[in-house]
Amino acid sequence: MKTITYQKSIDVRGAYDVAVVGSGPAGLCAAVAAAEEGARVVLIERFGILGGNLTVGHVSPILGAVSGGTMAARVIDMLKEKHPDTPAVLTRNGKEEHLDHEEAKSLFPAWVKKSGVAIMLCTSVVDVIKEGNTVTGLILETPTGLGAIEAKVVIDASGDGRAAYMAGAEYCIGRDSDGKIQPCTLEFLVDNVDESVGIAAWGGSDPVKLPDGQEYRALCKQKNAEGELPKNVSIVRLHRTGNPGERSVNATQLNGIDPLDPLALGDAEVELRGQIDACLKFLHTYVPGFEHCRFKSSGATLGVRETRRIMGDATVGDADVEQGLHYDDAVVHNAWFLIDIHNPAGGGQAEGFAQPAQPYDIRYGCLLPRGIENLLTAGRCISGTHRAHASYRVMTVCMAMGEAAGVAAALAVKSGKTPREVGAEEVRRVLEARGVEL
After folding, report:
1. Do the Cβ atoms of 209 and 193 come closer than 8 Å?
2. CA distance linking residue 52 with residue 16, whole number of Å
3. Helix axes of 216-225 and 262-286: crossing angle, nearest 10 degrees
4. Once rounded to an integer, what is the mean pLDDT over residues 402-431?
5. Would you call 286 helix, strand, or coil by DSSP?
């Protein structure tokens, strides 16, 4: 590959105790938790709005579970405050927590700002500043060009592990057998659904039936085989929202692309937006109650399930999720979601259906990249196996990770130690003082 050498003096735009990269579910909670524990925090977001998959990703409902008292419960309560009469939905996926994406776009910036966190929007991390193996700051691409910030601790909540990768951290991608990752999806909303007959369907193992007695999942498979649904779209998931007559549609699917390749992302955007039309035609033609449903809105960015997993001092392993293992150094307790591996090589699930999981712990070391100091990870890029990742990647669990990372970062700044030197015991002490059940 051809290379160039580029040298430029870059202004330092500020100095912070904690810099959080990414404002998705993990990043939001990391930033606010660190600020609540007394740190001077900046939250860096590449898009023009906070929230990640909670807003620009259009992901709904919020799934997963953790122990009581975490910041995840606070966020969910905030999103539900104006919708007290929304009925609870409980499926094999667990409790579905609904949200209004547009409402969230206003709630999150106000909440973050009130906590004292500085917000940088339309700003991406270009590189990491290091002294030896210690992270000391970030190089940023901003609307006014390159800039730098100094930070005593960096929390990588970017999903892709972008800052950790640039810091030279070890990482894995995909399943061990062939490196293939779960497919990308573009989620969208429809409204004008006739609630008197319109179904909801949470996945390929949902036995919900249409009014004529036919199983909906069988209809989806049939129309996929007949070419009326896009390749590998063998189930059109229809989740209820907080608004009557509305469904969040999780259906479009593209396998075999590299979400870290910008050219591949461009191709995926064209393909997946084209698939929306095919899914709408399927709903209009074959699903009672959806004959007159209208396309309402869609994600502003692709839904990426899986990229880098940053290897840490500890790892969430297959046995943790399968057997529900618990640890004395856990900073997230009773994390739970199904082992939900969307098939990296085709439609449906990699293992037939999403497999059972038991409530498990996430150890502090899973947030500490091996061999790198003053850096923490939170969200789907923490240290874990491909199979375990398919459980802990959901938003409620990511929020709890973010809170733990934010607390750890603030403690490191207060004590003058690295997050690794702070240790799990001290992080657990503060989390429990905040009301988190561990």
Report:
1. no
2. 23
3. 120
4. 98
5. helix
Q: Which residue has 């860096």 as its token pair?
A: 44
Assess whether pLDDT exceeds 90 at residue 86: no
Beta partners for residue 342, in sequence order: 349
d(CA 365, CA 384): 11
Question: Any idea which residue has 């007949």 for tokens?
Answer: 226
Q: What percent of the chain has pLDDT over 90?
A: 97
Say whether 266 sits in a helix, a strand or coil.
Answer: helix
Query: How much is the pTM?
Result: 0.97
d(CA 415, CA 37): 12
| Under 8 Å between Cβ of 154 and 140 | no
Amino acid at 361: D
d(CA 68, CA 76): 12
Indicate the residue type of 220: C
State which H helix or E strand residue 96 sits in: strand 94-96
The total of other beta-carbon atoms located within 10 Å of residue 213's CB is 6
For 107, list phi and psi in degrees, rounded to 5: -65, -45
pLDDT tens for each residue of 169-218 = 999 999 999 999 999 999 999 999 999 999 999 999 999 999 999 999 99
Return the pLDDT at 1. Answer: 87
Which stretches within 196-295 are classed as H helix?
A: 216-225, 262-286
Residue in 313, 388, 394 with CA at minimum distance from that of residue 358: 388
What is the identity of the amino acid at 162?
A: R
Before 61, cis peptide (omega within 30)? yes
Mean pLDDT of the residues in the chain: 97
399 to each of 48, 343, 378, 382, how far by Cα in Å? 21, 25, 8, 13
Residue that has been written with the tokens 């098939």 in this structure: 343
Which two structure tokens, joined as six digits, stand for 154?
A: 């960096």
Say how far apart CA 257 and CA 221 lie, in whole Å: 23
Residue type, 126: V
Residue 3 has a pLDDT of 95
94: left (phi over 0), alpha (psi -120 to 50) or beta: left
| CB 325, CB 361: distance < 8 Å | yes
Quick one: pLDDT band at residue 91, thresholds 50, 70, 90? Answer: very high
